What we know:
Helix content is about 35%, strand content about 15%.
Amino acid sequence: MNSHEGKMLIDVFTIFPAIFDSPLREGLLGKAIEGGILEVRVHDIREHGTGRHRQVDDAPFGGGAGMVMKPEPVFESVTACLGYGIEDLERLREEVEVVMLTPRGERLTQARVAELAALPRMALICGRYEGVDERVMEHLCTSAISIGDYVLSGGEMAALVLIDAVARLVPGVVGNRESLEEESFSGGMLEYPQYTRPAEYLGWRVPEVLLSGDHGAVERWRRQAALAYTRRVRPDLLRGSGDETERED
Length: 249
Ligand code: ADE
């Protein structure tokens, strides 16, 4: 699943670095960072803003509403922080996956997450305002990713979603590898329903088969439940996945 040994390095470029503070401190991500399996460096693009006011945005050529992120602060921030010269963009793009988070990107899937998790490092650029000068996309980024068909106020939340999804696949971050293998999407289906104690709550009993101790029966029930649930909630996942022939018997 992962071709590099151990650690993954992620450089994030944003004009709102504080957004990343608590999500990177808490839970699984916090632990991975503390344990040295994951390193996330958050860089403030404004440090490379132009002029006395460290300007990072400007009006769009051709007119229209809103502001566009200027190219210079982004190019300079990324090259300086990653240790490349501005004339060395070709080598930078060969050596580092530079991802723009934007609703104009390819839609993120678990397969793409797994591809990214196999890389030793990547850089994430968080767009803001109404857009980013297209030269950043053309000459600095190697890909553009959207986390879904809706519009956020900026790429920061999307970058956090991507970091979380990728980090879970880096060896050592999720303790139990089995829980990765069983979960939703890796098998092209949504996960089966889970229950825990008490066996009865407010009169609602958990399915008896789960209490039976019959591992074969439990396995069959789970497969069937996952299939039935997926068929109801996300039939698109089953179409063309090779599972159409699977029967609920
Ligand atoms: N920035 C704004 N909306 C976004 C989205 N849906 N995905 C990624 N980045 C975004």
